[in-house]
Amino acid sequence: MAELAPQERLQPALLDRLTDNEPEKKLEAREERVMSTARLRQAVLRDLAWLFNTTRLGGEELAGFPFAAHSVINFGLPALSGETASTLDIIELEQSIRQAIVDFEPRIDPASLRVEAVVTDLQLDRHNVISVQIRGDLWAYPVPLELLLRTDVDLETGQVEIRDLARSGF
Fold it and tell me: pLDDT of 72-90, one tens digit each?
């Protein structure tokens, strides 16, 4: 593997630094202590998938605890399974996704973050799946990386699938 230039060396998140992918090895290679922009992108996508596929507490459970709403105790999105595409408040969904990213994914610049539901006339053909497009800048040195994601929210199962449109060429 070619050595990364100093500006390409990004420090992994704490979870990635604490995870031992090769427990049989006693020493860690230098390239394992830093990550490339491609590995950073993969880690952010993995962490967003975990975030979006976790159900957070409802508003009534946290009514007396205003600081808990933005803490790790409220990690995830609101419960979406059992909703229908025709009755779902799309603006509330967009706001929930955006707030979850702002609260729990510091590698995405909040000022650049745009979350927009993709609403089409063919929504009934999607069988209760709502698509959401997420744009933002992923922190990297010397310049940020563009992040463009298509997120499909299955309202029947509550599962969320994320695709990286910037990497797949749309």
Answer: 988 999 988 888 888 889 9
- Look at 123 and 110; give whichever has higher pLDDT: 110
Contact of 2 with 38, CB cutoff 8 Å: no
Among the four given CATH numbers 3.20.20.150, 3.10.450.40, 3.40.640.10, 3.40.50.720, the one describing domain 31-168: 3.10.450.40
- Residue 72 makes CB contacts below 8 A (sequence gap 6+) with 104
Closest CA to 88 of 120, 138, 128, 42: 128
Of the candidates 87, 85, 96, the residue with the CA atom closest to the CA atom of residue 119: 85
